[in-house]
Specification:
It comes from Urochloa decumbens. The protein is mostly beta strands. It has 4 helices and 29 strands.
Length: 389
């Protein structure tokens, strides 16, 4: 069900996008974030094109209370304090509730004496094995931190027909729902998925060892086909899948330096290790770009993106032409923090956000001083002023 907000053009961003009458869906990506100074029901939108920040008023529940797990086609995917999912268009205020979290394969509701859901039972099984035979019990708000990793849309929800795909735990499995569905459909038996992309009517899903599986979600029974077999044995880099502006499929590997543990804490087994305050954030140190050769089923490393630009993070991975977005820097990667363990374990720590130059192998800040709160983590968003019909 959609919930629409009509403010007297509360969004200067909306006015800016529509004032020319020549709106294109492919606007320059902006950074969506929350700010303690702006209030609980608002979000900030930093425009790379204008180098300007806007304030957006969003529908309930408050933005500060949500987890953001995805961004596609101008909509974000959020998990509220009951671990229920919504997709929200921050520009128009449209909001759509997704199927209940209790319809995900590994989740069951626990009711109190009044018949109200008070907790969730979470099973640790994948399509191949059970990590633990004993289910866990989570309070309503606690499940989302252990369950959700990333979410993706197949198309603009304004079209009326779209899929939502979840990467969720245990072991980063896949589930999906189509517009109008009342429950999630599980896609066993594979796991360890890192990123997803819709291309040519198919879902492309990359694993942590570089495999790429394809799925036709509209043709049940849905079974995976292997486009690319594993290209590495050890999980180290975070992996993204993106369609280049020329239509080719790219696989991106992103490396970082994790937070450092205090040596004194490590030497004492009776103490929980604490983060060294001098090293309180992960830092992206390398990004490698590979072209996927579907004929040879191999990766070909690229030394440059040329005139292309990448956007990585909790958003749908994007590749744009700098020639069409003059404010963007060619052969650069605009990134936000999406390290799952770090984000959920250290919410108050500074986020790994910046612009990575592939030629010099160095990063710079997007804006200084920092505009955003560290939680929820900021995401890239392509503003979409289309309203639900």
């Amino acid at each position: 069900m959609a919930c629409r907000i009509h403010q007297p053009m509360q969004h200067a961003a909306y006015t800016s996008l529509c004032s020319t009458g020549s709106y294109r869906l492919q606007q320059t990506p902006c950074l969506l974030y929350t700010s303690e100074s702006a209030g609980t029901r608002t979000a900030g939108l930093y425009s790379l094109a204008e180098k300007k920040a806007y304030t957006l008023t969003l529908p309930d529940p408050p933005m500060h209370s949500r987890h953001i797990i995805g961004s596609s086609y101008g909509w974000i995917v959020t998990a509220d304090e009951r671990s229920e999912l919504h997709i929200v268009n921050p520009i128009t205020g449209d909001q759509i509730a997704l199927p209940s979290v209790t319809t995900i394969e590994q989740v069951k509701p626990i009711f109190n004496d009044a018949g109200v859901i008070c907790n969730y039972e979470y099973s640790w099984h994948t399509g191949k094995r059970a990590i633990s035979d004993t289910p866990s019990t989570f309070v309503l708000s606690g499940l989302r931190e252990s369950l959700f990793y990333k979410a993706f849309l197949s198309s603009d929800p304004c079209s009326g027909d779209y899929f939502v795909v979840l990467i969720h735990n245990p072991r980063s499995q896949l589930s999906f729902a189509r517009a109008g569905d009342v429950k999630w459909t599980w896609l066993p038996p594979d796991s360890e998925y890192e990123d997803c992309l819709f291309k040519g009517g198919l879902l492309y899903a990359s694993t942590s060892i570089g495999e790429i599986h394809t799925f036709n979600l509209g043709a049940p029974p849905v079974t995976p086909k292997i486009l690319l077999d594993k290209v590495k044995d050890i999980y180290f880099e975070r992996i993204y899948t993106v369609q280049a502006s020329c239509g080719e499929l790219l696989q991106i590997w992103r490396s970082d330096v994790p937070p450092q543990w205090d040596e004194e804490d490590e030497s004492d087994s009776d103490l929980e290790p604490e983060l060294d305050p001098k090293c309180h954030v992960t830092n992206t140190t390398a990004i490698k770009v590979h072209k996927v050769d579907s004929t040879s089923k191999k990766l070909m490393e690229m030394i440059s993106l040329g005139q292309n630009v990448l956007f990585l993070g909790h958003n749908q991975s994007l590749c744009l032409r700098a020639e069409e977005y003059l404010q963007l820097k060619a052969n650069n990667v605009y990134f936000t923090d999406d390290d799952y363990l770090y984000l959920t374990g250290f919410k108050n720590n500074r986020r790994d956000i910046g612009i990575f130059d592939l030629e010099s192998n160095s990063s710079e800040e997007i804006v200084s001083p920092q505009l955003w709160s560290n939680w929820p983590t900021p995401v890239w968003l392509i503003p979409n002023p289309r309203r639900m019909s």
